[in-house]
Amino acid sequence: MAVTQSGRHATHEVQNQVPPLAGYDVADDPALLGALRREGCAWAESELHELGVLAGTAATQELARLANVNKPILRTHDARGNRIDEVDFHPSWHQLMTTAVSHGLHAAPWADKTPTAHVARAAKFLVWTQAEGGHGCPVSMTYACVPALRHSPDLAARYEPLLTSASYDPGLRPPEGKAGLLAGMAMTEKQGGSDVRANTTTAVPAGDDSYLLTGHKWFCSAPMCDLFLVLAQAPEGLTCFLLPRVLPDGSRNAMYIQRLKDKLGNCSNASAEVEYDAAVAWPVGEPGRGVPTIINMVSATRLDCVLGSAAAIRQAAVIAARYAGLRHAFGAPLIDHPAMTGVIADLTVESEAATTLAIRLAGAADRAARGDAAEAALLRVALPAAKYWICKRTPMISAEALECLGGNGYVEDYSPMPRLLRDSPLNSIWEGSGNVTALDVLRALTRAPACADALLAEIDLAASDRRAAAAAASLRATLKEAQGPDGERHVRRLAGQITVTLQASLLARHAPAAIWDAFSSSRLGAAATAPGSPTSPGTPFGSLPDGLDLAAIVARSAVTSR
Ligand SMILES: Cc1cc2nc3c(=O)[nH]c(=O)nc-3n(C[C@H](O)[C@H](O)[C@H](O)COP(=O)(O)OP(=O)(O)OC[C@H]3O[C@@H](n4cnc5c(N)ncnc54)[C@H](O)[C@@H]3O)c2cc1C
Fold first, then answer.
1. The whole model's pTM is what?
2. Ligand 1 probe mutation, 191, 430, 442, 489, most atoms within 8 A of CB
3. CA 51 to each of CA 23, 65, 112, 127: distance values in angstroms, whole numbers, following the listed order
4. Is the CB of 433 under 6 A from ligand 1?
5. Distance CA 89, CA 272 (A)
6. What is the pLDDT of residues 8-28, one digit of tens each?
């Protein structure tokens, strides 16, 4: 039977649709490159651009899509009924992981004596995570486990060389025989994640140097990792343990994956519920001091939460700016309509502030790891503050950027915006949800006076700027109030103000005048709480005041497709 071909109509012409953003260098980011150079890390730029170009290719975007439409599959048993607890990932996931590990985004800097190796890694993570966010989870956890593992030098000597290796070697085999290892963490239980001291998983001494762990973990992401840092109640108290998936003799450890979470956010990574039934594990650090030990891992993953959210904000601003530049409405490109110029400019200002602070914190982490006490004190207070503020603002920014694409923003195969929005709340939740992270800021300030000193010393570096100096004075008053009886009730305001004042100090010194003018006139002082201000509670973005050089601001979010 003949098929009737409908005739061509003018309406079949596709007009005013924006081509996919591909073939660009994700590392072509002036705020990131400026911050990198300030940290003395210009040596890393060529590799950063290499990774940036790769992240911006259509081929990598296709890998990201495939990894997210082909969800990991849990296989609890083999065909003969034997328990195997394997998770199958799509080949695209393994390709993304191979790139991340071969570029040292996981634990590699811990084996690198080059000063600023951690900063270089942070910048690469910020760039590559814009390719796909989900696989950043095991990469981050592997990075973060090393400082905790070093509390047990014997375990570190055994596993650190493999954790820092540039080989991605998936599959369940004895860790000692693999070319490279990945590590995860399991703290959260059914009854609670923030209050880990309420953990019920037990650890019984096995008679040698190991313990046997029995209990459940309600969230255990990337369950195909080789090693896990796990909290459990030992006779000495809550203790951090290293638990391998496969024991040195090749047998599977008694860690059973009960199910994978059907979760919001990326679909590429697996998050599992796991059960231990006398699983073998070795104590890390002093038994009974589990929290102080694992806090090293928590701190390093918090840095990646900030970097990941800064990356998401940058990606959202870039996609929105490009779309608004190419899409026309009412006779002009969207970006030329004043209301849209204001939105893109506001997103750009937020992105610059987030990236600038994220890399400054990576510099502090690098110097702290090399023994700089003042930088360690700055990081102790500034990192939870930044995690609270930057991660919490990411969903609002992603939603605003998505809306710049109108209905197209909602469509899965049009751009990565839907994926970006779905993933955007995660960094605020894990490794300390908003309140818990903000409370940690107060804890740092009350327990260690060096934290406030280091924070104010950094902020005062911009004291010659009138607006930055006024913000610093206001923060000093808030810091005094924070020590009062109602301190806990105001921790969100405290964490937010610390972050914005730190961002102000950095932008006053280092950002182009257009960015600093916009930031200071919209996010500091009375402007910060005035109705319509971007930092006023509940106000959407895109309400910058008059008199700013919006064209110069918006240009910072422009990228060039090759
Ligand atoms: C996708 C995903 C992956 C994850 N992967 C892992 C993993 O690999 N390993 C792991 O261990 N965990 C993981 N988690 C768990 C995560 O770290 C926890 O969900 C988080 O720490 C919060 O714990 P909870 O869910 O038990 O919430 P709760 O502790 O019950 O907290 C609920 C709410 O109460 C607030 N709250 C808690 N205490 C206070 C207080 N004192 N004052 C005021 N407010 C408070 C919190 O901020 C939060 O908003 C993952 C979570 C998600 C969503």
1. 0.97
2. 430
3. 12, 18, 19, 7
4. yes
5. 14
6. 898 899 999 999 999 999 999
